[in-house]
Specification:
Radius of gyration: 21 Å
Strand content: under 5%
Mean pLDDT: 84
Shape: globular
Low-confidence stretches: none
Number of strands: 0
Helix content: over 70%
């Protein structure tokens, strides 16, 4: 079995979570085209996110075989860092609701432009609050990646459709980018100072609270939680797939920051901006434009070079350590 370094493990987990969530925008779009209202889409999405994350948490806890039982174990672990846990829960609730709402209110291109800035916020907050020292390759890649995102979504933003929608959608997307960066900081700080806090369980509690809030909101809006759609079975399958996709990235982003910086996790998240249009092409046969293709390929190339340089640095570091150890042994002789 291949033994991964901590950094390689963190990158692999983050990338797997991002790959899992790439169909999200397409699934939401399909649900809208079936006539489902916003409340029903959000309710069933978070309903399935709750059950998928709940299953993951209980599987992991059961595997650890706590003598006091799973529920008691989670309670005791929460008590080791309640501030970290409840801060993560609060952010999860807001991220759950506002990210989806942003996609339903404004063009996906605008959402992703604002969301992609979490790379910048993660780098700034990591340096300011956790003392992260980012390698030059990471700083350069972050700046270059933001340029690639602008290339991917810039042409769509220039169209009438790209400019449609409420400014509240823009504010929601901006908040999501900042909140993701703060969430990654909390996860990393908890791993360092309160390692027993069950951050992944915060995603479960957040999803539960989100679909309860959506349910209560229908008392005001009058929306139906059970939508009148042409294909109910396909609608619930769509929501289950979306719930699984969101659960995947939430679980990944609660684990990956233990091994890599928030800026590196955010860089991995930008893969969604490249693979999202691929799903649109596969489902709706909407061919990506030349700027989308060019920006996407440049972004993938930049991330590949970044990881290649990181791997080379790791090999050089191990070689220096080996030579240092050999020199120490010779000196002792």
């Amino acid at each position: 079995m291949v033994q991964l370094s901590d950094r390689a493990r963190g990158v692999a987990i983050a990338a797997a979570g991002v790959l899992c969530v790439t169909p999200d925008a397409v699934l939401l779009r399909w649900a809208q085209t079936q006539g489902a209202n916003t409340s029903s889409i959000l309710f069933w999405k978070f309903f399935f996110v709750f059950w998928f994350t709940c299953a993951w948490v209980f599987y992991v806890e059961k595997k650890a075989a706590p003598a006091e039982g799973v529920v008691r174990s989670l309670y005791e672990r929460i008590k080791t860092g309640p501030k970290h846990f409840w801060a993560a829960v609060g952010l999860q609730i807001s991220l759950d609701v506002l990210f989806s709402l942003a996609f339903l209110i404004i063009a996906a291109a605008r959402v992703m432009i604002w969301y992609s800035l979490n790379v910048l916020w993660s780098a700034i907050l990591g340096c300011a609050l956790l003392g992260d020292v980012l390698p030059r390759r990471t700083i350069v890649t972050c700046i270059f990646a933001l340029g690639c995102i602008a290339m991917v979504f810039g042409p769509e933003l220039a169209t009438k459709k790209g400019r449609e929608g409420s400014p509240w959608g823009d504010l929601a997307a901006i908040y999501v980018g900042v909140a993701v960066a703060i969430y990654l900081i909390i996860v990393r700080h908890a791993a360092r100072e309160r390692p027993r806090v069950p951050i992944t369980f915060a995603t479960t509690v957040g999803a539960l609270a989100a679909f309860v809030l959506v349910s209560l909101s229908t008392l005001v809006t009058g929306d139906r939680i059970v939508p009148k759609v042409s294909s109910p079975g396909l609608f619930y399958l769509c929501m289950a797939l979306d719930g699984f996709a969101i659960a995947g990235i939430f679980v990944a982003f609660s684990i990956a920051p233990r091994y890599i910086t928030g800026a590196e996790v955010s860089l991995c998240s930008l893969l969604e901006t490249v693979l999202g249009p691929l799903w649109v092409f596969l489902i709706y046969n909407e061919r990506p434009g030349p700027f989308t293709l060019a920006g996407g390929l440049l972004l993938i190339g930049a991330l590949f070079v970044h990881e290649l340089l990181a791997a080379r640095e790791a090999v050089q570091r191990r070689e220096r350590e080996r030579r240092g150890a050999a020199a120490s042994l010779r000196a002792m002789e």
